Fold this sequence. Notes:
Two copies of one chain form a homodimer.
Chain A: H1 13-37, E1 41-47, H2 53-61, E2 69-72, H3 88-92, E3 100-104, H4 108-120, H5 131-143, E4 147-154, H6 157-171, H7 188-201, E5 209-213, H8 217-237, H9 269-292, E6 297-303, H10 309-317, E7 325-329, H11 335-338, H12 344-347, E8 356-360, H13 369-372, H14 378-397, E9 401-408, H15 411-423, H16 433-439, H17 442-456, E10 463-467, H18 471-491
Parallel strand pairs in A: 1-3, 1-4, 2-3, 4-5, 6-8, 6-9, 7-8, 9-10
Helix pairs in contact in A: 1-8, 2-8, 4-7, 9-18, 10-18
Amino acid sequence: MLEKADLKVKCSKEEYENIEEGLLERIGCLQRRLREKGIPVIILFDGWHASLRGRVISSVLAGLDPRGFRVRSAAKKNACTEGLPYMTRFWTELPAQGSIAIYNNSWYYGLFEDKADSAKKSEGAELKVHAEDVNVFEKQLADGGYLLIKIFLHISQERQEKNLEKLEKTYGKDWHKIDGNHVKEKEYELRYEIYDETIEATDKRKAKWYVIPAEDLQVAQREAFGVICREIETALKDERTDENYRLQEDAKKVPDVLSGFDLSLNVSKDEYKEELKEYQKKLQKLQFQLAKKDIAAIIAFEGWDASGKGGAIRRLTSLLDPVGYRVVPIGKPTETELQHHYLWRFWQAMPFPGEITIFDRTWYGRVLVERVESLVKEQEWRRAYREINETEELWRREGIVLIKFWLQIDKEQQMARFRDRENTPSKTWKITEEDWRNRSRWEEYEKAVNEMLFRTSTDVAPWVVVEANDKYHARLKVLKTVADEFDRALAKP
Amino acid sequence: MLEKADLKVKCSKEEYENIEEGLLERIGCLQRRLREKGIPVIILFDGWHASLRGRVISSVLAGLDPRGFRVRSAAKKNACTEGLPYMTRFWTELPAQGSIAIYNNSWYYGLFEDKADSAKKSEGAELKVHAEDVNVFEKQLADGGYLLIKIFLHISQERQEKNLEKLEKTYGKDWHKIDGNHVKEKEYELRYEIYDETIEATDKRKAKWYVIPAEDLQVAQREAFGVICREIETALKDERTDENYRLQEDAKKVPDVLSGFDLSLNVSKDEYKEELKEYQKKLQKLQFQLAKKDIAAIIAFEGWDASGKGGAIRRLTSLLDPVGYRVVPIGKPTETELQHHYLWRFWQAMPFPGEITIFDRTWYGRVLVERVESLVKEQEWRRAYREINETEELWRREGIVLIKFWLQIDKEQQMARFRDRENTPSKTWKITEEDWRNRSRWEEYEKAVNEMLFRTSTDVAPWVVVEANDKYHARLKVLKTVADEFDRALAKP
């Protein structure tokens, strides 16, 4: 795609100054309309070293209200997400509705550098970042209502050398230090190929690339304004009717997964006490082993109201080192969370190497409460099955242990526990109007749970259904499962 | 203070099991009442290595609803705040109203380690963290409505050795890896002295230390519950009448600082254009030099509505590398920000070494809009003068360049600009009801500005008042001042 850019176009300083005021006003006005409509925008500037991206970005910024944008750079280390999956950083940095994120070097930076490093090794090393992951991410963004504008600034080898000389003359030999970007000269041909093939592989309908000639600074500035303004105008016109979206009436009928479990399973108090102690001690040691090997783990709890999630989590953690794990309770999203992609808040809680994050309710809220309460459209929760599978697969591929529990009780058992909570003064705070309202929709929830278990029990991230009418049985099954999974992760070479 | 702890007290496992259920219910209930009243709580567990803090913390956690607490450890690196002033981490980690932060090793960790390291050097090295900074921080927290509970777990040298042996037997030689805490054995005497004197120096009325004997695990658990519950109960009873607080009717009358500036200062368009270009180019190079030397800078803008803050910032940044600076506009606090200390959101935006944070409006909102609009009580904004001076002094001591601008225009000039905005279609969005409302309180604001300039123009962080009736003069003064300050910072050895 690079060859299509016409590097010969010129625009004099005077010509540019004549149109500059108009461009600034136009983009400023568009930014205000984006805010009104609550559209989040991400603008990527990638391209050659010394293609003067900083200057082009500055000229765009001059028209923007700083209350609505943030400039970022993947070439600069982000210490907060070091050690976490590559995409974590970009997920946590997503702009809120109506805001603009501008990247001088985006997630493509890692891709480009990885490929260049690999190509320079004699055998070619295995890649750590894949174009396919980027495509999945960008599709999730586009589907989630983000406007993505991808700009590649292209220059010739001669221009790069001239620019490098000029930068060196202004700032001295170490001019590149400020943006953390190491200049790799004399790699033009190698990089040309890498850029070209990567752009080709990631040029998608809703995530198009714009290759802009930057041989002449004014041309690059003018073209960048043009692309950005046109893309925003199109997004503002887009009524988001989702007319092209067809619900995939899945041919396969959803089987009644839940009915296959024996809820009468139970354990005596003595046996429980003994085994509980044993497994708690075992987990205490396993946590230490995981930490030593820098293995991260996510343990996800879902289940009916009063199915005993909290109690199970408490038994699971009681002998763990409190500094090495974290319980993240998921409730109604906050104002800020609502202004982001629904997966955003979960990416914020990624466990660092050697740590454990326990979610008390999870991202599956999308296909449970949000589905049943009609908080999102059908196409949104239907799409979530795929998005969740993609996300969990990515986590697993990064070596994170992932365990998902569904705590299953029957309707009678729930009623008994609700009554108990109502009648025990120290427990009344645990039962609310909402619990009764959810209960009245039991059958709808049951349908949603069945479909969730069916569609998101993948090879790499299977659900573990826990028979939870008997609390002792349920807790022991949870502890045993976690211990087994930790053992398995530790056994891997 | 350590000697006062009675290490001989015993409590058997059976005794403890008998009271455990009651303790868990009591603390769970107190947590719910804290949430209702919106009191934020910070519980510190500091003390000897191998004093089984993790176990004591776990026993407290067992009674808490995970929706309301977070366990942290200063012994574990927090990559997000590396390179920032020592206190940044603790400021950004502050719990929201109604939430509890529990530290296994708190800000005292750095103090203790620093002192131990220094003591072991032949001459004794200079300390990087000071007890006085901690006292300032804790006072600001207490004044800001945080409940602070400081617990030190004390053990004898024999007990420490026994515990170390036991831990090693369970986990192997590297048992301490999980909490990032390096065991320094055979330092008991040295550390005894350090702990004792530090505790002594930081034991304040609203930030009391509790030294708890941890010779016997059950005693430590019981005592920790006792201290925490009693402190919370006291805080819940506290009606916060601030009866002890006396407004310091400052003897010194506030002088009319503002009137001393000549608002007729102006610059011709030609001169402006020429100098602007010169200073922008100069700043471009200076930014690079600062980055190379890892010097961070904060540039704070305050001024009347329509005094030209935005325009000045735009000229200041137009040639800067967009990746190396960030404009942080300060508006009404969000829901989340309101649940924190008023200084919290500014600590979140600390510039990393080599970077520049530009605030468009600042922490001075406390003594300007919040004072004039009566959003806070008089004692709160009065206290803020001291708190702000303390905070700015701390930043300066950490080597951060701090420049504070007040853009001064007169009432007629503001009217002319308001009218211009109303009459120019591309500018109407810039003028709102609120601007007119603020204007109607001009005299009250003037009084507040005068007092602010008078009380917070310190030697290390003086205000720069910019005569801004003429935009050209104002912008050039801003650019020149920044360039001078950067030059000065770079000239330091």
